[in-house]
Amino acid sequence: MANDNTLRATARVTLANPAGMLERLCDHFVSHGTVTRRTGGARLDGAFGAVELKVGSRALSIVVASPDESRLFVVKSSVAEHLAEFAEGESFTLSWHGDAAGETRIPYFREVVVRRARDITPAMRRVTLACDDPGHFATGGLHVRVLIPPRGRVPIWPSAGPDSRVIWPEGEDTLAKRTYTIRAIDQARGELDIDVVLHDESPGSIWAREAKAGDRVGLLGPGGGDVIPADWYLLCGDETALPAIARIAGNLPSSARASIVIEVADASEQQKIASDAAIEVTWLHRDGAPAGSTNLLPQAVRGISLPDQGKPFVFAGCEQAAARAIRKHLRAEKQLPKDRHLVAAYWRRGHADVHDHGD
Ligand SMILES: Cc1cc2nc3c(=O)[nH]c(=O)nc-3n(C[C@H](O)[C@H](O)[C@H](O)COP(=O)(O)OP(=O)(O)OC[C@H]3O[C@@H](n4cnc5c(N)ncnc54)[C@H](O)[C@@H]3O)c2cc1C
Questions:
Q1: Which of 69, 110, 156, 346 could make an S-S bridge to 169, C-beta 3.0–4.6 Å?
Q2: Nearest Cα residue to 4 out of 56, 67, 46
Q3: What are the DSSP calls for 41-63, one per residue?
């Protein structure tokens, strides 16, 4: 099933209809990964690991295998969530054995402490966080879920139950959760930078505006996967994706070429984009129009030709309507294969905390 470094966990869940549960799990998983049917069972292979399911007379046996602790936790937790959803009120006990059994810590959670905060443009504030192991955030994706505790309360962080489902603090201890990009990692100083758009009296904006040395905050992640190697990149987005675009550009090799298109309020929001690659940066200004109300980004993307030679990769992060228009254009007009673009809705006008990554 897996190589020697693989972590494994097992569970046996007593159910009235284990065969029915197997069917529901397989039907659901088919749109997330590969389902291989076997006599009396199935194997599910996904990005985070593999799950072997075997049906007994009154029980479903589960074996999970993943390459590391974080991914093992994600798979165990996801299996538990789906069992609970598909059991439709039938009570069952799920208790994992094997690697990380009994662990109440979420392996990809870190408590970090604000070291300082400063405005880098009129509407963008950089919050620098002290972190014991910044290397944890270096691979596996650019963004994190920032868990913001209620003002004036000692934070209660999420933990893992015996079935690996996440237990969230409730009531007065409820955490606000917002997604932000790790703009920069300074391993030597043990620091992470997060650049936050100040747009409203919203939880994320208030947190960044009021952040002061010593404030505690939780991070879950990183997530979103690493940037796909390519010869030519199109990196585009509004100011919410500026931190991601700047970080991607900063890590490109000198052999790469990139067209960068960024929509901001006006010239005062422009930032220097540093890269070893050959980059061409275009700034689009809303000039008084509200964020998320213009067609500037999709229009600009339509005007860009993909190169005939070499492998392209397109990254876009912006308001949901613009993200949809860009994704549609890349797929329908440019015929760009799915693995050659990542177009994500970073926020949705009129809705709080949209966590929609499109594909
Ligand atoms: C993968 C990913 C990475 C992201 N990285 C960053 C990042 O590095 N920096 C960053 O600032 N944002 C980033 N975002 C976007 C950020 O998560 C959203 O903007 C989020 O809604 C901000 O939370 P909030 O508490 O300020 O507003 P919310 O409480 O979520 O929303 C309140 C209201 O404000 C509106 N709103 C939300 N964002 C904006 C905006 N930017 N401009 C105008 N109106 C807005 C909403 O539509 C809603 O009506 C990222 C999002 C994703 C999915």
A1: 156
A2: 67
A3: EEEEEETTEEEEEEE-SSEEEEE
Express each pLDDT in 322-336 by its tens digit: 999 999 999 999 999
Rounded distance, CA 145 to CA 323, Å? 20
Predicted confidence (pLDDT) per residue in 144-177, tens digit: 999 999 999 999 999 999 999 999 999 999 999 9
Please give the distance, rounded to the nearest whole angstrom, from the Cα atom of residue 34 to the centre of ligand 1. Answer: 33
Q: Which strand (E) or helix (H) includes residue 110?
A: strand 109-121
> Is the pTM higher than 0.85?
yes
Q: Ligand 1, residues 144, 342, 346, 356: which to mutate, most atoms within 8 A of Cβ?
A: 346
Domains in the chain, CATH or no CATH each: 7-98 (3.30.310.50), 109-223 (2.40.30.10), 232-347 (3.40.50.80)
Give the pair of three-digit tokens for residue 310: 């070499």
Structure tokens given for 185: 């990692």
Going by alpha carbons, the residue nearest to atom 6 of ligand 1 is 180
Question: Please, what's the b/e burial string for 109-147 (b: 16 or more CB within 10 A of its CB; e: otherwise)?
Answer: bbebebbebeeebebbbbbbbbbeebebbeebebbbbbb
Is there a contact between 20 and 109 (Cβ–Cβ < 8 Å)? no
Residue ranges lining ligand 1, Cβ < 6 Å: 143, 178-181, 195-197, 199-200, 202-205, 224, 240, 243, 291-292, 344, 346-353, 355
- Ligand 1 geometric centre to CA of 26 (Å): 35
**Is the Cβ–Cβ distance between 283 and 311 less than 8 Å?**
no
